[in-house]
Amino acid sequence: MAVRACGLIIYRRLQPAPSSKVTDSIEYLLLQTSYGTHHWTPPKGHVDPGEDDLQTAFRETQEEAELTLIEGYKKELHYPVHGKPKTVVYWLAEMKDCNTEIKLSEEHQAFQWLKLEDACKFAEYEDMQTTLKEVHQFLCSRE
């Protein structure tokens, strides 16, 4: 049976320097897992019985009141984990208050706010790197 997880790709906008482009002020939130290879990923988690995908995504962020869901972006990734198929669905959300405290669950040991290039380096997996680049292009096209 396929595993299903859902999450949010969370970004924030810092105050840009007068000479910089608006898109240079975007940072993405990545969390480091406290298990396995300690990989970095946007917040996500398995769908609980009776829960819909978007409820799962918000539950996994624990920051629901501070986030604004961005219409028009949804991404589904498919890959094997321990020989079983896994589907992860991501939505895009903006954290309006740049000073919001990030609360880690026992599943994560660290977090980073990263510009696109560094987020891609931390993310490691090619499909996540591609997704982050797509999100960035989506946000830039809305400017």
Mean pLDDT: 88
What is the fold-level CATH name, i.e. the topology?
Answer: Nucleoside Triphosphate Pyrophosphohydrolase
**The level-1 CATH class:** Alpha Beta
Low-confidence segments, given as residue ranges, are: none
Distance between the ends = 41 Å
Tell me what portion of residues adopts beta-strand conformation: 35-45%
Radius of gyration: 15 Å
**Largest sheet entry:** 7 strands, mixed
Q: What CATH architecture label applies?
A: Alpha-Beta Complex
Q: What does this entry look like structurally?
A:
- With 143 residues, the protein is α+β, with helices and mostly antiparallel strands.
- It has one domain: Nucleoside Triphosphate Pyrophosphohydrolase (Alpha-Beta Complex), CATH 3.90.79.10.
- The chain is built from 3 helices and 7 strands.
- The protein has helices spanning 53-61, 116-123, 126-141; strands at residues 3-13, 26-33, 40-41, 44-46, 67-81, 84-95, 108-114.
- Strands 1, 2, 3, 4, 5, 6 and 7 form a 7-stranded mixed sheet that branches.
- A hairpin with a 6-residue loop joins β2 (26-33) and β3.
- α2 runs antiparallel to α3 (126-141).
- The longest helix is centred in the last third of the chain and has 16 residues, at 126-141.
- One of its GO terms (molecular function) is bis(5'-nucleosyl)-tetraphosphatase (asymmetrical) activity.
- Residues 1-136 form the Nudix hydrolase domain.
- It catalyses: P(1),P(4)-bis(5'-guanosyl) tetraphosphate + H2O = GMP + GTP + 2 H(+); a 5'-end FAD-phospho-ribonucleoside in mRNA + H2O = a 5'-end phospho-adenosine-phospho-ribonucleoside in mRNA + FMN + 2 H(+).
